[in-house]
Predict the 3D structure of the following.
Amino acid sequence: MDGRIGGFQLNPQIRDYWSVRDSLVIDDGVILKGNAAVIPKLLRAWYIDKLHDGHQGRVKMELHAKDAVYWPRMRNDIESKVNACQPCQFTRPANDCMELTPDHQHPVPQGPWQDVSTDLFYYNSHNYILVVDHYSSYVFVYKLTGTTSRDVIEILMQLFAEHGSPTTLYSDNGLQFDSREFANFAARFEFRHTTSSPLHPQSNGIAERQVRIVKDLLKRSNGNDAFYRGLRSLRSTPLDAHLPSPAEMLLGRKVDTLPRRACGGQPNHREQLEWRREQQRLNFNARFQRHTPVRAFDVGDPVLVRNARANEWQPATVVDKHHTPASYIVQPKPAREVNPPETSDGETATEDRMHTPPAWRREAMPLRRTAQMIRPDPVRTRSGRISRPPERLQY
């Protein structure tokens, strides 16, 4: 091709885009092909590395890039990246010659988080538990501190508290799952537990397949950062050309970081959330103004102050005002005035055994000016009689 179209000489910079010119638009200064951002040459290598997070193959990388990024001959660049990746070449699986029949497959559930499978696996001196949703193929991976039933239940309880209990949980016949403790857990969280055939864990094939994928990801990753970025990429890559990503099928949203054009495909509740937050603010202020009026204190007023160290309210007296709003300098009451402690022989402790903390700055809380709250607890004599002060000393 000499660069001529219909007798016109094309600029070399736009020659590669001539065949898709009718699909190109400009939105907020960004050139788009449909919903995909057109990536300039200087950024293509960075996006190729981004698409290859998790060391996914050519087909998965193309599905991940679909409707997100575009540039001419992108498929060739993706294929070159995969062929040049040594971790991908070293960990390629062997050919599986076993015929797959419908009996080996679980039926497709009616919706997400109805049927899930779980399995334990060991890699690099660590035990892991994997949980996968049959409908969306969304994978959860957790590192275990032990392999007992209690260790497995702790992880599953946290997961089911976040996403709800599934209808059916499939697992192998490991000792962790074949126990009374796990059966009681299934009854409490109201799900049906189904185990695979003895000595034939392949019947839990969905979890076995995901274990292989996650193990390959661990082998190809250099550290936790690369592994979790790869796991995010695995969750955000479409299952095929006609199905969305596992995250969209389970969570209803994308979880990747590729540039995407904002669209109205998903319901946006922002206006309703803003209205709800405004109503909460108004209701709180109304209750505050009705029940907690702003209170000013004078020097000598008794108040309660919060002792953060002891995590309790303690009586004190206002000794001065502070320059900051609604703040005062208070003097805590000595411990002997609040509740005189007793020694081992039952006598009241002497003053030299008390500790009176210095004055400190606290926000004061109103205290009802009653004799019962201002005076210390009633003092009893040795015979048990309550010593009462004269009425003229009461407020």
Summary: The two ends are 104 Å apart (CA to CA). Residues 270-291 form the longest helix (22 residues).
